[in-house]
Structures are given as structure tokens and as C-alpha cells.
Records
---
Amino acid sequence: MSAGKRSNEPIVWFLFGTGGFFAAFFLPVHVLFYGLLFPTGLVHAPSYQETLALVRHPLARIYLFALLTFCFFHAAHRMRLTLSDVLNLRHLNTVLAFLCYGGALVGTAFTVWLLMTV
Amino acid sequence: MSDTIILEVARFNPEDGGEPSYQSYEVPLRPDWMVLDGLNHIKDQLDGSLAFRWSCRMGICGSCGMMVNGRPTLTCETLLMNYAPGPVRVAPLDHFPVVKDLVVDLDDFLAKLQKVRPWVVRKDDFKPAREFIQSPAQLEAFHQFSLCINCTLCYAACPVSGLDPNFIGPAAIALAHRYNLDSRDQGIEDRLDILSQHEGIWDCTVVGECSVVCPKHVDPSLAIQQFKLTATKEWFKSFLLPRGKH
Amino acid sequence: MPQYTQFQPKEYRPKMSAYWYLDHWHYLRYALREASSFFVAYFCVLTLVQLAALGTNATRYAHFQAFMASPVMIIVNVIALAFFLLHAITWFNLVPRVVMRQMLARPTPDIVSSAPNYFVWFGATIILALFIMGVL
Ligand code: SF4
Ligand code: FES
């Protein structure tokens, strides 16, 4: 491995790292409310209209776009590495990369579309 | 408390072929004995055919690393008492080819170490008329990473180095980083060429166990992650200014 | 790599166990930390489903809410929360330490680099909670 090609990993690593901060700072509170406190009725959930108004706010849209996009790439990168190291699927590296990052791109496309049409 | 302890030692004789096996020896358990003292007792009193490496018996030569109860350990600075009442399993370092018994083949590691050019690299004619002055702050920037004794415990602790034999590995990257941070050095571009490849820093998935087992608190994991930051910065630079000379 | 001659003894090359992450709890902790990524992906998709339901109409959103209230979903989401907390704590203990060391070019106590993140985390959680509950 002398004088070989420098890897292009920095681009996905950068997205992974940024997504890691988003996931760490913001995801716990999201799942806490939407996944636990609202469904069990421990906290009274806002009405449909109120929730809709909240996500239609421009700042909320920007926030959700950044959150979901970076988290998709964070998850994609880590899933790829988990599958290749923990489950030892290193020989499928190209396929895994295609599936994981491809999935993140599809997720991003859906995010943009849903946030523009909601 | 009994005054002996059982050591189960991995034996492998290359001339027999076949698989390694464990052989048990009963050695004295003394409060001041290290695991290495137990092995030396075996070699001197019980079975002279046992092969293992050691030299300084004071944690500085880095040759006595072995798996003790499954953990990478410097046997000359780990008390046998810690494992009482035993038995204690002593095996060669994980992820390395075994030459005999507890002796592993370090050729591959040494070749990797050379590749990262762990010495001061100058691009100019470096003939200083007097000593090169380095401030305490400049020293502090790399001092921690210069403490490595090449014991390769970090390689034995690193699952990635087991999964990918081409991974250049924790100690080599930590030493490369040590020279990159040195104010006298100008070799960072050469080292980036080696370490920015997939088998360089990007193979690392931050298991972090290298830093846990390192007897010298070098923290190779920290060095690798810092290096990833540097490599990423360089990548974006050359992406934005493709023709720019950095 | 050494070349073997006819009479040269062979080395033993150990094979790595497929279940290496069970060898020590540090490795298991690492594997679980990495597994959090599957829950991150799951929750992002779930949020997209929620957005789709919100964008359709009130009945659809009511369906979504009923779906979220099913015991299975609540259990899955409690597990997701546990994984997110594991991710957050391991992240805050690792990443800021690297960035800080890089910027200051000298060792810093871990508490100095991690503590600010816990404060930001705490603040962001309160503010987001108020928005989500519709108080703000
Ligand atoms: S970094 Fe630490 S564990 Fe690795 S070889 Fe150097 S001293 Fe040993
Ligand atoms: S014998 Fe030198 S480090 Fe243990």
C-alpha cells in the first residue's frame, strides 16, 4: 500500500460526523415524545392542526431537513461499517456501500419532497 | 491462600505442525512476582522448551506482550497475584502469526511501521548551525504520542487489525501522528499519501480498545481520529482547489 | 511476508472468531453502539411516515397516532430511545475530545471537552420539548 490512491472516505465521514451530532443532540427528545409520551398519553399530544402548523413553519422545515438528511447519512455510514466489521461481510463492501449510501440518498429525496408538500 | 498458582500456557511447535494446545504448570505464587516471573520459573525449573520474549522486565522494551486471560498484557508489569487463585491462561498476542509457543512474528508490523516514516522528515537542506529550539508547548503537542514502546498490545486488542491484515494499525498511525505534530518535521504529505488510503486511517471504526490496553497511555485511537480530521481537511482543500499545491 | 523454504517450519496463523464481539464487554459495547445506527435509520423513516400522514389529512394522522400507540411500537421506541442515549453518551465522550485536542494542540481533561456538550444537549432537549408539546 505505498503511493496508492488517497481515499474519498472524507466526504462520507464528514456527513457521518455531522449526523452523529444531530442524532446525539436531537433524536432522543423526538423519540421520547412521539414514540413514548404522546402514544401512552402521559403527555397530552397537540392536535392535528397544531402539529401541522409546527412543521409548516419555515424554520421547522429547515431543521427537519438538516436533521433527517444528516441522520440518514450518519446511519448509512455506520450501518455499512457494522455490517462489514461486526458481521464480517467485508467481501460485500461495494454492495453494502451502494445499498447504504443509496438508501440515504433515497431518504434525502423523500425528505425534500415531503417537507415541500406537507 | 495457597502459595502456588496454575499457569495454562499456549504451546505451539512449528516442527510438529498441527494446532497450538495448552499445557499446565504449577508455579509459586509470590506477592512480588509478575506473570513473566512465573514464565521464567517454568523455563528455568520445569520445562526449558518453552519459548517467549522478554528483555527489560521494567515495561520499557515492549517485548513481553502476551494475552493473559484473553487480554493483551505486558507480562513484566502485571502481578501474578491479580489472577489468584487462578488458573491463568497465557497465550501469544492475538492477530499475529505464531512462530513458537508465545513468540509472534512481528515482520509485518515492522514493515508497516517503516511505511509511515516515523522519523523527522525534512524537505529542505537541514543543517542547523545550532540546536533546534522547541518550546514546551510544541513539545506538549506530540509528547504523549512519542511514548510508544512498540509492544503491539494495541494490535492484539484491535478487531480491525484481525479482520483486515492490511490495516496499518494503531501504533504505526500514532507514531506517524507524533512526527506530523513535531515542529521540526516536514513529512506530513508523504504520510498522508500512506495513511489516507483505506488501509490507513479509514479502516478504523473507533472500537477504542487500543487506547484501553496501551501500557504507556499513548491513546492511538485519539491519534487516528485526529488524523481523520486532518485528512478530511486536506481532502476538501484539494477538492475545492484541485490544481492548488498544498 | 517470509518465504518458506522446504525445511523451514511453518507459522501458525490464528483465525478470528466470527463472534469476536462477545469476547469482552468492551467489544459488545462497541457493537451495540454501532447497532444504534439501525435505530437512527428506522426513526428517520418513521418520521417521514409521520410527515406523509400529516400532509395527507387529519384521519390519516389519527391512524398514524393509533399505530404509534400499539404495544409493539411502544416497545420498539423504548429500545430506540435506549440506543439513542447510548449513541449520545458515547459520542459526547469521544468526538469533542478529538476536536478539542486538534484545536488546542495539547491534552485537555476529558471533562473540559465533554461537559459543554451535555449542557447544549440539555438546553436543546428542553427547547425542542417545548416546541413539540406546543407550549412555544
Ligand atoms: S501504542 Fe501503546 S499499545 Fe500500541 S505498541 Fe505503542 S505502547 Fe504498545
Ligand atoms: S520485558 Fe521489557 S516490556 Fe516487559
---
Amino acid sequence: MAARKAAEKPNVSGEDLQRYYREMLLVRRFEEKAGQLYGMGLIGGFCHLYIGQEAVVVGLAAAARDDDKQITSYRDHGHMLVAGMDPKGVMAELTGRKDGYSRGKGGSMHMFSHEKHFYGGHGIVGAQVPLGAGLAFADRYLGNDRVTFTYFGDGAANQGQVYETYNMARLWNLPVVFVIENNQYAMGTSTKRSTRSPSLWERGAAYGIKGEMVDGMDVLAVKAAGEKAVAACRAGDGPYILEMMTYRYRGHSMSDPAKYRSREEVQKMREERDPIDRVRELLVTGNHASDDDLKAIDKEIKAIVSEAADFARESPEPDAAELWTDVYA
Amino acid sequence: MATEILMPALSPTMEEGTLAKWLVKEGDSIESGQIIAEIETDKATMEFEAVDEGVVAKLLVAEGTEGVKVNTPIAVLADEGESPEDAASAARAPEADKADAGAEAAPKPQAEGATEAPAPARSESASDQAPVAAVATDWPDDTPTRSLTVREALREAMAEEMRRDDTVCLMGEEVGEYEGAYKISQGLLDEFGARRVVDTPITEMGFTGIAVGAAWGGLRPVVEFMTFNFSMQAMDQIVNSAAKTLYMSGGQVPCPIVFRGPNGAAARVAAQHSQCYAAWYSHVPGLKVVMPYTAADAKGLLKSAIRDQNPVVFLENEILYGRSFDVPEIDDYTVPIGKARLARKGDDVTIVSFGIGMTYAMEAADRLADDGIEAEVIDLRTIRPMDTDAILASVLKTNRLVTVEEGFPQNSVGNHITAVVMERAFDYLDAPVINLCGKDVPMPYAANLEKLALVTTDEVVEAVRKVTYR
Ligand SMILES: Cc1ncc(C[n+]2csc(CCOP(=O)(O)OP(=O)(O)O)c2C)c(N)n1
Ligand SMILES: [Mg+2]
């Protein structure tokens, strides 16, 4: 993986580091809990966990403004938590209850928050890419300077609509950051088996779009690249492509037997490149946090997550009449 | 406080599984994220990771145990500062498992032979010729059978056709090395190699077009859509390229191709992954549309579809994949496209369904029989070209019709059947036809709403009572 190393002494405050740590830990613990609730039959259908990829959304959120927009695939829980959506409401959607963000009607793959500028949660691989460019089209049209982060996977990067979108996005200089979350697998297909392109971001060059490859396991590298991309978009020189080299620890969804990679490969990633361990180390070696501080954060996050889980179990199922609402505006 | 580890659900459809192997033993300390067991689901063997950390106080279910219900406690963890003995004794004993063998019984034995000729016409509005009734079985009575799941039947059909014809190839996402997202193509890459079992990137529009071109070029491709929901990415190639080219070329360029994969609702996969495409594709001249219910039909019809000179949309169902049915032990068993099957004989009402809808139709017929109402159930099997004769022959006898399907109500398959029956047998109807469909909403995720959105056995029973005035 052609990844950038984090600077030896990163130019970042202890406060910021603690924030990234807390956000990444929230995503990880939330996902572990979701996996557990799935195992108990409280979550059904497909459930795609984000464990291992936390630095991508956390780093980009650090580069974004609160009013910037986001759109992604079905692997969306982390994006929503970091966008500031309430863990209780997200978990309650996973359990299909009344207090979920979509009132139980969307589930894990289809969740939205107009208030937090999060436009889903899309189950059809690649479909979110033109949709994200469309959100950016509206912003350019309306004359504001918001940026849309459009996330998609390495597998989705082979869908034709991605390239139709690239062409138009550059033709019209749309303020959209295309974030390719290259976790190296699309279900059981490794990138080596789906393309001969040496890298995915370079495909943008054919349309005149700038971009770069980023170590997606390093939250500081992600943030730095995100800032560059955002600056280009706000200056009217969008779009921009960021290929985040990352890794998912868990199966594709809950029902993936994961025979396409070795246990050792996963273990090695966890041990050597874990994004949370990395920040934890920076916190400790930089004397930004003591062991006790870290323990306190762990405890605090665990409490948020178990509160969300309890809430999601106790929230009632949606009223039967909800079946018929929201079909038309 | 001891923590119980429960048997996990590891797929949307899993209700029980085999605890194949423990990777930890009593006394081991485990961390969250550590793989502690291998569990076999209905589809595959999966690794099971611990969520909580602690010391394994007791393994409650021995490895090799089959039929362990989801949420049964399988092990106990001692928490920090707790002795494993205390934890083990605090845990409740696992409940004895009443193994519910053969959850889904094979269909009821059917009345032998075909129906009698239809009743003489009540008036001239009936078709000029007496319609031909559906056959009850496609094989002679004394044929030996074996029980196969729909999944195995589909796999056998593809393997057999690939053995007999080198131009038959399979293409799609995860069909090769992964052996199919739903394991339909298990073993095919091993047997036929990468020339004939082709893994594609996630590019439905692209590979569908390539497969259509390959069909024009002399191959007989079978295109697997991981689910039919994703065929919408490729619909233009199916409708505009595959279906119409024979006609546009004045008969010169046929397109022998099969588009297959799971269709309709699975379990809790919500709006974008739960749609029935029977009505959608059956709208299109030039396409054939097949939707089997039993394993025998899945096998026989898929073999026919692969040999057909036309594009065939072959709609399967994830929930049916694991169900077992009798399949005849006949060499090269095929079922003709375009012929319905008489699934149950009766005089009081005709129920027409197809695919998973047959589950509700047959259950309803059983319940109605307890109350003395004998329903005739027709399994359409092919949606286009439709065996309207079989429907008419039955309606001429019963004078009442209920259709059952999972798709949306407007422009449903049932709507079309109703129109045909009204045109050709209006005077024979003693009650308005009822079309039962999924509800007219996108599929909701919530468990209670999903149940309400789907067509149910209760609704079939109620509709039959309405049209029979009983
Ligand atoms: C159009 C379409 N085709 C296929 C699928 C089935 N599917 C769901 S996720 C997935 C893999 C996508 O991989 P990638 O884009 O790398 O994202 P990741 O899951 O790694 O986050 C596939 C094939 C789908 N949902 N939509
Ligand atoms: Mg991927």
C-alpha cells in the first residue's frame, strides 16, 4: 500500500487528538454493539460494519464545515455518528423502531438526516455517486460555498455511472469531494481481481480531476488531504478525488464467511495499522493523555453506546399506520 | 455477573445452526474481537467473534451440535474478578432443543393425472376451443424421486447444461471464487474453470451488455444478478438490446441468454432490496419470464431456459433456496416453458400463484379444506408466455378466481390474468376476481411493518371466503 506516514511530531493539539480518539472509539464500540444485537436477532437483514475504517470519516469531518453535506453507501453507521447524528436514533433505526432516524422504515442501509446534511445510506452500489454530485450541483446553482463529500467503495468505483459523473462534475466544476474508501475488497473480490488500474484515484485524470492517494488508517493524513480537497472545491476548482487506503476488519456484512482472505492478513492489519491505536499512542507519547484519561474516555463511550442499545431495544415498533405514510409528499 | 454468549444469527434468514467447532476452551481468557467458534449457517461456515472480554467459565453446547436455535446460550464468560466456577453455576442450563426436523415439508401428494376436460361452454363468450387444463405432475407416477433443495436443483441444472454444451457459460458478481453470494454456483468454478465461470466487477450495465453481445456471437450466457434489484442497473440492455433484436433484425439475430438470480423480498432487507420483477419484465415482448416454486421446476425450467433461443428472465427466491422438494430421477429432466402446473385439485375456487406466492396459496388451500372449501391451485411457473388455457380451464369449473403474488398491485400479473378471464370467460364468473399483491408501498424495514407489507396466508383465506360467499 503506497501510504503516507504520519509526521513524526504531528502539528496537532492534544485537544484535537482527544476528539479524534473519542469519535473513532465511538464508531468502533457502536459497531461492535450493532454486531452483537444482530447476533441476538434484534437487527435484521443486511448490516455492514465500519470497524477498521474509522479514521476516514473522522479525519474528513475534521476538515469539513458543519454545513457541508455527505452521502455514502450502506456502510454508513460511522458517517452518521461523526456527522453528529444521535447514536440512540441510529441504533433505533437498526432495530427498526419508531424512534429511529427513518422511523424504522429504512434500516441500516437507508438512513438520512436533513438536519445534519446526511443524505443516506444507499443500498445500490454506485448510485450515491451521481446523487452526491447532484447535491453539489444544487449548491453551486444556489451560489453558496458548501462542499459535498461523496463516499463510495473500491467495488463501486467500477460502476459506469461513476465516470459519467466524473465527466460532468469536472465539466461544471462541482464542489464535490469524491472519497473512495478503498478497503481492498468488494465483498469477496479483491481490487486485484476487479481491475488492472494501478490505482483508482488516477482514473480521474482522464476527466481532468485532481486527486491523491491517502493513508486512510492515519486520521491526521486524512485530515490534511481533506483540507486540500475542500479548499479546491470552495475555490471553484472542484471536484477532487481522495482514494483512502483502508481496511475492514469484519466480514462484508454479517453473513460473509470471509474465505477470500486469511485470518493472518486481518490480524496483521489490526495489530500494525489500527487507526485508533495510532492516535492512542500519539496521545500517550505526546503526554496529551494519561492512562486514566484514556480509561475515562473508554468508559464514557461505553456508556453512550449501551445507552443507545437500551434505547433501541426499548423504543416501540412503528405504529401499523406508518406502513402507508411517506409514500408521497 | 456472568455474561452469557448466545448463539448468533449470522445471516438474514438463519434461525438455527450447527456449532461446528470451538476455538477456545474452558479457562481461556478471551478478548473482544477474538474468533471463538465456527458456526455453520444455512449458507456457509462462519467465524464467530467475541464481543465481551473475560474468561470462558463454561461451554454449554458441545461442538458438532446441530440445530442450535439462535439466542440459545452457548457459553458463559466470567467477568473481571469473578471466579469461573461461580459464573458457570450462575448460568442457566441450555434448554433442550426440540429439533424441528424438516421445517418445510415437501408439497402434499397431488391427485394423479390431469384434470378432466373443461365443462362445456356456458355461452359463446368462452373461448372457441376448450382450454387445455394444467398438468398435475410432469413425470410418470412410478418415477423414483429424491429430495433436493431449490439451491441444489438450480446448481444441478447449470452443471448439467454446462456439461452438455460448451457454449453455456456463467457470468456475474461473486459467481466464481466466492461460489455465489447465495451459493448457487458452488463447485462450478472448480468443475468448469475460469473460462466458463466468469467473475465480473460490480458493473451490471456493462457485463449484461457484454453477455448479450456474447449471445449474439454464438454463446449461451447465463447472467447471475446477485439479486434482481441490481438488474435495474442493466435494464436497458435486457429490454432494449436482448428482447428486441430478433424483431429489429427481421429474425436474423436471436439472443439465447438467461438472466437469473433471487427476486422479491428476502428478510428485512428493506425497500431497495425487496422487489418482485415478475410484472415488470413480463410487460416486454421478446422476453420470456419464468418464476419457479418447487425444486423440480427450478431444475427443469432452468435447463429449458438455457436451451431456449430467446432471452429468459428467470426469477428465483432467496427464502425458497433452502426448501426441499421431490425431484424426479430422470436423466436430462426438463420442464417446458409456458406450461402451468396443477398443484392441487378442487372445485370451489381457483387460486393462481407463482414463486413464493405458492407457499401462501397452498397453506390457504389446506386451511380452507378443513372447512370444506376445496380450492384448485395453479402454479403458473411461467409468467410470459402465460398458460392462460390452464387458468381458463380451471375457472370454467370453479367460477371463482383469486390471484396471489408478492409484487406491487398496480399493473400486477394478477391484473393481467383478470383481464384475460374477463374477456374470455366473463359469463363463467360467479364473483369478482380478487388480486392479492404486496401492499402499495416500498418495502419497510421494521419487522412489524414488513409483515404487514407482504401478502399472507390469512389474506388468501379471507379472499377465498369472499369469492365463495362462505
Ligand atoms: C448495483 C449493485 N450491485 C451489487 C450489489 C451487491 N453488493 C452490495 S455491497 C457490494 C460490494 C461493494 O464493495 P465496495 O464498493 O468496495 O464497498 P465496501 O462494501 O467495501 O464498503 C456488492 C457487490 C448492490 N448492492 N448493488
Ligand atoms: Mg470495498
